[in-house]
Specification:
single chain; globular; 11 helices; eight-stranded parallel beta sheet
């Protein structure tokens, strides 16, 4: 039954007839709470993010939802009571732009999840995963304490940002309205929550330019995504592309416009489109070195200072014009830290000229609106999801108080603070490894998937000018099919190209190959190639030779050398394998070909 407001509640709270179970802040008794047992947060100063002034009151939660909120709310019988006198109660924060990437710190999915929870961020967009990884990662998240994570599929242009490190199975490449529609359609089996589009090739005035997406392509993409109820967020960093994004009715501009000051026409177009603006100041903020007088003549430093000024000024201009501001950080890229950057982003908004209240609204109600989730979260109202945080302070007056997080609730359950201990899974760096099968791929499937039912990937050098890889099935070494690939090497130093076979769906769960001695395959080609093993700790390769006739090649694990390892790891483990493949390395502009069959491990 929904609690009724009552002016006599203060007296009734003292009544033993209520049989209320009350616990103070930090009580381990909260660990025993279940979704079947109501929770009451009492005497908090509530910033409900509806535009209402903060008020002292009580929130009652049942089955993960807010059942009642107000200054005179009756506490249900048997409720777990969190006494919050002197604390602020806010909706959980949302970050619409993050990258849960291996380069982020921390790097593992559970540790990233823990960092966001500890920072009061209860809803997150992840822009970093290949679609094949969506379901395995969703399953992994269900087993740990984590924010609600939206997995966002990626689309760019050939030679564009986002396509400069990933193949087309990770980031779709489109150049026309037709290819954009087809790309959105092709993503639907993966059930993406939203679509990220890299529309702007301007590289901040300090790097080589990349390609940009034209208005027709972006407009068709946005219209197609809307058919599936998916929001479109764009990497847009220039005034010109901001106008194109608005004309295409994108939902969120997910970077600062920073090449120049916005003109009135572009501001009007962004406002008229109802587009939200997430300035991601946390990734652009000036570093102490940028302000070093000794670097005042450095052109890169001057450009960083210049674009930071544009970023701050354009945020003020859009806010003053009534464009809704959302919170995004680009965390996981560069030095932007998961969780912490989300709180810092609100501080930087205030530094740029917004009020603390406006920054809090950006991180709560506005971000929920931007993601189409306002009916479910983002404000403290009856019926909303009980994603809440208690803070020691008044962040609507002093924005730095957002760092003073006492407790975080996700779906009505305490996820951080209050004596709650995270489960062991939140401290793992990877899923438990699965035993690697002997056969990785015999290339008999015609749908691009391996014998392990994983989607093959193209492996190539990174950058704007990339090697081109084409793969097709051909007659195999002993009948059946094999995989042939051809590579046109890019015109730069150390180009390469080839194919990779993930050992699990989306390369999420590692494989344990310690019962094997090495990699075996049938190979035909011309010259030297490299067998590649990607692991959780980095990349390992071993050289192999091939001729114009089929031969069986066996490469012991002892022959593999580390190429690019993380955290200084240099020792071969064998229980953290993610992908196995073959690549060709040739001179700039050269071409190469190879045929591969019966790729697998051989026994020890």
């Amino acid at each position: 039954m929904i609690a009724r407001k009552c002016g006599l509640c203060s007296g009734m709270l003292a009544s033993k007839a209520l049989a209320v179970l009350a616990f103070g802040i930090g009580s381990p008794a909260l660990l025993a709470q279940t979704n079947d047992r109501p929770v009451a947060i009492t005497d908090a100063t509530i910033f409900d993010a509806t535009g209402r002034e903060p008020f002292r009151g009580t929130v009652v939660i049942r089955s993960g939802r807010i059942e009642a909120v107000g200054p005179n709310v009756r506490i249900p019988k048997g409720a777990v009571v969190i006494r919050a006198e002197g604390k602020a109660l806010l909706p959980g924060f949302a970050d619409v732009h993050t990258h849960w990437s291996p380069s982020g710190s921390p790097a593992a999915l559970p540790q990233i999840a823990s960092a966001y929870v500890a920072s009061g961020v209860t809803t997150v967009n992840d822009f970093h995963q290949q679609p094949e990884a969506f379901e395995p990662l969703r399953a992994w998240l269900r087993g740990i304490v984590a924010p609600h994570v939206n997995f966002v599929a990626r689309i760019s242009t050939p030679g564009g940002h986002g396509a400069d490190w990933a193949d087309t199975n990770t980031t779709k490449w489109v150049a026309t309205a037709e290819s954009a529609r087809r790309a959105v359609q092709a993503l639907q089996p993966y059930r993406p929550d939203h679509i990220k589009v890299f529309t702007d090739g301007w590289r901040y005035g300090t790097l080589p330019e990349e390609t940009s997406m034209n208005a027709e392509t972006l407009g068709a993409l946005t219209a197609e995504a809307r058919k599936y109820g998916q929001r479109v967020l764009t990497h847009t960093v220039t005034v010109e592309r901001g106008r194109i994004a608005a004309n295409a009715s994108v939902d969120i501009i997910a970077h600062s416009i920073q090449d120049a000051l916005l003109d009135e026409a572009t501001v009007a177009a962004i406002k008229a489109a109802g587009t939200f603006y997430a300035p991601t100041l946390a990734i652009y903020q000036l570093k102490p070195d940028d302000l070093d007088p000794g670097r005042k003549d450095d052109p890169v430093t001057r450009q960083r200072i210049r674009k930071w000024g544009f970023a701050q000024a354009n945020l003020r201009t859009l806010f003053a014009a009534g464009v809704p501001i959302a919170l995004g950080t680009d965390a996981g890229i560069g030095g932007a830290r998961h969780g912490y950057s989300s709180l810092q982003e609100m501080e930087l908004m205030v530094e740029a000229g917004l009020s603390p209240r406006a920054a809090l609204l950006a991180g709560t109600a506005n971000s929920a609106l931007a993601l189409g989730m306002a009916d479910d979260r983002g404000t403290i109202e009856r019926g909303k999801r009980a994603d809440l945080l208690l803070i020691d302070g008044k962040p609507w007056e002093t924005i730095a108080d957002v760092h003073k997080i006492d407790r975080v609730l996700i779906d009505g359950r305490v996820a951080f603070g209050g004596g709650v201990k995270l489960p062991g899974g939140n401290f793992e760096t990877a899923l438990p490894a699965a035993l690697a099968p002997q056969l990785i791929d015999d290339f008999e499937r015609a749908d691009g998937r391996s014998a392990l039912d994983t989607l093959r990937l193209a492996d190539m050098d990174g950058g704007v000018e990339r090697s081109a890889v084409v793969a097709n099935r051909v007659p195999g070494a002993g009948g059946g099919a094999a995989l042939a690939f051809a590579v046109q090497m890019s015109p730069k130093d150390k180009p390469e190209g080839g194919v990779l076979v993930p050992l699990s769906r989306g390369s999420v769960r590692p494989a344990d190959a310690r019962r094997f001695a090495g990699i075996r395959l049938n190979l035909r080609g011309a010259g030297q190639y490299a067998v590649v093993i990607n692991t959780l700790a980095g990349k390992w390769t071993a050289p192999v030779d091939a001729t114009g006739t089929w031969s069986e090649v066996r490469v012991p694990f002892s022959a593999f050398a580390p190429v690019r390892n993380r955290d200084g790891a240099a020792a071969w483990r064998g229980d953290n394998l993610l992908e196995v493949g073959v690549v060709a390395r040739r001179e700039a502009g050269a071409s190469a070909w190879a045929e591969v069959d019966n790729l697998g491990f051989y026994p020890d």
